[in-house]
Design goal:
heterodimer, A: mainly beta, seven-stranded mixed beta sheet, globular, B: mainly beta, four-stranded antiparallel beta sheet, 11 strands, 53% strand
Chain lengths: 117, 109
């Protein structure tokens, strides 16, 4: 059974860089059939797609976040990561990682990241 | 960036039918947007109900169906159950970049 688990600091200071990692277990991140993505949800608000990456490193980003976002993959560790720079309180959210083939079929449980001094 | 719009809230009676829609600011929604529909309950991660307009996941109840309707993507719930009360989000693909809809709160009452 595939599992995805987000990890990283739960508190980040304004203007700093948010860094999260998604560890994939029970399957290989190098499968040619899937993209691996990040989605976030501010408290009490809707979902926002951040971006996704293929195991080869090919990426797609949300245009509104593109200047601040980097998604990378480490196939040796079966992980992919999110970096979001110059964060503000508006970046406070639950961050989810997910696998996408034809569908988003596996999701992490989500991790709350709060931006505050 | 495209804006994807959904009804803010809808109410359906138990056993009744309701249709949620998903529109795009760029024009008509087509199969080329590969419309997805997700259900999210409080405190839980979203889960896919429908992908690629009308395809169901193995866990998708038969009472949910997806289609294109009047230039929008649509999710129809036929025979609503109390457990269907949730937030529903659509997702559209724009040449590889995805955009979530604004979400619809469905109340079964």
């Amino acid at each position: 059974q595939l599992q995805l688990q987000e990890s990283g600091p739960g508190l980040v200071k304004p203007s700093e860089t948010l860094s999260l990692t998604c560890t994939v277990s029970g399957g290989s991140i190098s499968s040619s059939s899937y993209y691996w993505g990040w989605i976030r949800q501010p408290p009490g608000k809707g979902l926002e797609w951040i971006g996704s990456i293929y195991y080869s490193g090919s990426t797609y980003y949300n245009p509104s976040l593109k200047s601040r976002v980097t998604i990378s993959v480490d196939t040796s560790k079966n992980q992919f990561s999110l970096k979001l720079s110059s964060v503000t309180a508006a970046d406070t959210a639950v961050y989810y990682c997910a696998r996408r083939g034809a569908e988003y079929d596996y999701w992490g449980q989500g991790t709350l990241v709060t931006v505050s001094s | 960036q495209a804006v994807v719009t959904q009804e803010p809230s809808l109410t359906v009676s138990p056993g009744g039918t309701v249709t949620l829609t998903c529109g795009s600011s760029t024009g008509a929604v087509t199969s080329g947007h590969y419309p997805y529909w997700f259900q999210q309950k409080p405190g839980q991660a979203p889960r896919t109900l429908i992908y690629d307009t009308s395809n169901k996941h193995s866990w998708t109840p038969a009472r949910f169906s997806g289609s294109l309707l009047g230039g929008k993507a649509a999710l129809t719930l036929s025979g609503a159950q109390p457990e269907d009360e949730a937030e529903y989000y659509c997702l559209l693909s724009y040449s590889g970049a995805h955009v979530f809809g604004t979400g619809t709160k469905v109340t079964v009452l």
